[in-house]
Design goal:
This protein is an alpha+beta fold. The protein contains 10 helices and 10 strands. The longest helix has about 30 residues.
């Protein structure tokens, strides 16, 4: 396969980039640098890793939203996966014809196709490693979660099998995105009578929470962030006053005065919630806790949101 074949496909209206995944190396991304940064590519690759491991063998393609783009995943011969990142200007009928032709071209010589993408992407194969294989601690954590306790990343995906019907199991999972998930099973100790602290203003806390929420949508998208906030919320009645809308914006349902402060216990509940939220995101983006500390929050926001400020 020649480079020109891929380049011609990328020149079509609405095509933002492509990637090839062979399971033994990081995905070979090409043409996506203007649409995705490094962390977003990592998040996308790791999310697909999770889904591929749980997708029926007869799937033909699936599609999902990621950072404002529509993404299509196709299964090729020998377990190779083709990813296409598209934008709003995509002409779908023309795209369907072009992607079918591209799939034919790619599968004529898989070994040559992989070599071409490796050259285009400049990636290095990870010798004797299976990139699809999840870390044991991730699998262990996933097995420990109840289905209603969190919305798995694969619930974003709409899967199509070769007979053209959606996969029932993933179709059911999609319902988690349309309705609020059950609260996390984690519980916090019941609040005691606590003094008011003049250190934490509720409005400032909301601003910090929304800053963290909107920062995270750059990596995981609004739907996933919305569900991760809901699924990681401790079972504390006071925390139910915090509402998360579809844009992952957090509001407080009770009226707030500029002089309102929260108690020490309430502050701890918030920090427990933020910790659980970051931990949930880290199952998709391994370095997410480090990213939050180094790139997302300033010192004051760390004081408000993180129990461990180090």
């Amino acid at each position: 396969m020649k480079r020109e074949v891929v380049q011609d496909f990328l020149n079509l209206p609405g095509i933002a980039g492509v990637a090839l995944m062979d399971g033994r190396s990081r995905p070979y991304f090409f043409g996506v640098d203007q649409s995705l940064n490094f962390q977003q590519k990592e998040a996308l690759a790791q999310g697909i890793q999770q889904v591929v491991e749980t997708t029926p063998a007869d799937f033909e393609f699936f599609e999902f939203q990621f950072t404002g783009h529509q993404v299509y995943i196709y299964k090729l011969n020998h377990g190779i996966i083709l990813l296409v990142l598209t934008g709003s200007s995509l002409v779908y009928p023309a795209y369907l014809q072009a992607v079918e032709q591209l799939k034919i071209e790619l599968q004529e010589d898989i070994a040559n196709t992989i070599a071409t993408f490796r050259l285009l992407a400049g990636n290095i194969t990870l010798s004797n490693q299976n990139y699809w294989k999840q870390r044991p601690e991730v699998n262990a954590a996933a097995e420990g979660q109840s289905p209603s306790g969190s919305t798995k990343l694969e619930s974003q995906f709409k899967t199509h099998t070769k007979n053209g019907t959606p996969t029932p199991s993933l179709n059911s999972a999609n319902k988690h995105l349309d309705s609020p998930p059950t609260q996390a099973q984690s519980t916090a100790s019941a609040p005691l009578t606590s003094p008011i602290t003049d250190q934490i203003n509720l409005k400032e806390l909301l601003l910090a929470l929304n800053h963290l929420s909107q920062f995270t949508t750059q990596y995981l998208g609004t739907t996933v962030v919305n569900n991760y906030w809901k699924s990681s919320r401790p079972a504390v009645e006071w925390l139910n006053n915090f509402q998360i809308d579809r844009s992952a914006q957090i509001t407080f349902s009770a009226s707030i005065a500029s002089s309102d402060f929260i108690t020490i216990n309430q502050h701890q509940y918030i920090q427990q919630w933020v910790s659980a939220f970051i931990e949930r995101c880290a199952k998709v983006i391994r370095d997410f806790p480090l990213i939050i500390r180094q790139a997302a929050l300033d010192d004051e926001q760390k004081r408000l949101l993180l129990a461990d400020k180090a």
